[in-house]
Amino acid sequence: xxxxxxxxxxxxxxxxxxxxxxxxxxxxxxxxxxxxxxxxxxxxxxxxxxxxxxxxxxxxxxxxxxxxxxx
Length: 71
Prior knowledge:
By secondary structure, the chain is mainly α.
């Protein structure tokens, strides 16, 4: 079985072990990394989410700064 590169909101909630409502709140409060829109529904890159969790789940703007510094 292959791991998907992108996950939707429901899959992200499952991956992180939280509810979809929590994912929505994290989005509203700019706590999640940026999302990708390949379809009508937002998706997140699994490798980005894993790196974000490894970094301690910083706020979106802090995550962007950390990513730019490491590039």
